[in-house]
Write a structure and sequence with these properties.
Blueprint lengths: L4 H12 L3 H8 L3 H9 L9 H8 L3 H5 L1 H23 L2 H14 L4 H13 L5 H17 L3 H17 L3 H10 L3 H8 L2 H29 L4 H18 L9 H17 L3 H20 L3 E2 L9 E2 L12 H8 L12 H6 L4
Antiparallel strand pairs: 1-2
Helix pairs in contact: 2-3, 6-7, 7-8, 8-9, 8-10, 9-10, 10-11, 11-12, 12-13, 13-14, 14-15, 15-16, 16-17
Length: about 350
């Protein structure tokens, strides 16, 4: 058992906001002796422990750190039991366990968060249960700095307010969440919910694209594997914008086709390189000429594409950017091809 009296003495004195001299006077010993204990250069004599404990109003076990060890062991036992009950779906027993744990450890934030989960999982969505969840959540958010427990508190407090029919309060908590986009799916309604959902579809495509690029950094992929994966990304875009009106995503389509064309150019595959270069320039030209429009693919029905809201990190047109990418040496095998040079025209 690891006895941490040095740390405990310093922590207790800081909590009481007193000086080493005060404890020394209480014990009838020198201040130097107390200072040595806190530096870990010695331990108090055993007969002094009750007096030290009385001075700080703690038990001898807590002073020695034994109480903390026992507390952790007990909590580990509770959390292991909770995992077993959650796995088997015994919500009633799980809730009783966490209520008892909260009574035993009323200041443990993990216990509070797990009690919130147990209350919500018991599927008793009455007002009293929702109020209990809210009270626990608000206490965690007021007192706890742990990001995991705070995230649980935000999410379940939001759901509890939805259960009470208070979507204004629910939205306030959704706005606090690091995953607010997904929590808002339970908060919003009507047209606002529809547009929010469509925005999530757009961001999901961006995350998928970024994920692929990072995946390619994680290990070596063959060109054939990369081509297959990029084509799967194309299919995802075509599923979301199934009528071919990609709106802002025309720029993504252009660069997906460029990525594929580069890979085909590595093996001097003329036909596939020209095809994907052609698609890249086609999407770039569409993007550069697009005006405000309302999209009509079923998943994006009513979503507004507004060019004036776009922000660029480059000068020139999208077509300029695409054509500059064809200056790479890998495309040299096509330089004398009329079809290749036709693709490079800017009109």
């Amino acid at each position: 058992m690891n006895i941490t009296i040095r740390e405990n003495l310093k922590t207790l004195r800081a909590a009481k906001d007193c000086k080493q001299e005060e404890l020394a006077r209480h014990l009838g010993i020198s201040t130097q002796a107390v200072s040595k204990w806190e530096r870990g250069e010695g331990y108090p004599d055993i007969e002094l422990l009750p007096a030290i404990s009385a001075f700080y109003n703690v038990s001898v076990d807590d002073l020695l750190g034994v109480g903390e060890v026992r507390r952790r062991e007990r909590l580990d036992e509770i959390f292991a039991r909770e995992r077993d009950l959650a796995f088997t779906g015994d919500t009633k027993t799980r809730l009783r366990l966490m209520r008892d744990a909260y009574a035993e450890f009323p200041n443990d934030f993990r216990v509070m968060a797990m009690l919130m989960n147990a209350l919500y999982s018991d599927n008793q969505f009455d007002a009293a249960t929702m109020d209990e969840i809210i009270a626990l959540g608000e206490r965690i958010l007021a007192e706890c700095t742990d990001g995991v427990h705070r995230a649980t508190a935000i999410e379940l407090t939001c759901y509890a307010y939805i259960g009470k029919g208070d979507r204004v309060s629910a939205r306030r908590y959704a706005d606090m969440s690091p995953n607010d986009s997904y929590l808002m799916l339970s908060v919003l309604q009507g047209e606002e919910l529809l547009r929010h959902t469509q925005a999530i579809f757009e961001r999901a495509l961006d995350e998928f694209y970024l994920g692929i690029m990072r995946m390619f950094e994680a290990r070596e992929f063959t060109d054939a594997e990369k081509i297959h994966i990029w084509k799967q990304e194309l299919k995802l875009h075509e599923c979301v914008y199934e009528d071919g009106d990609f709106g802002f995503k025309n720029t993504r389509m252009a660069w997906l086709h460029i990525d594929i064309a580069r890979l085909y150019a590595q093996s001097q595959d003329r036909e596939n390189t020209l095809y994907h270069l052609g698609e890249a320039t086609r999407h770039a030209r569409i993007y550069d000429k697009m005006e405000r429009r309302v999209l009509h693919s079923p998943l994006m029905e009513g979503f507004v594409y507004e060019p004036t809201e776009l922000r660029r990190n480059y000068e020139g047109t999208e077509l300029d950017m695409v054509l500059r990418s064809t200056d790479a040496p890998r495309f040299d095998f096509l330089r004398d091809e009329p079809e290749f040079n036709a693709l490079l025209r800017r009109e």
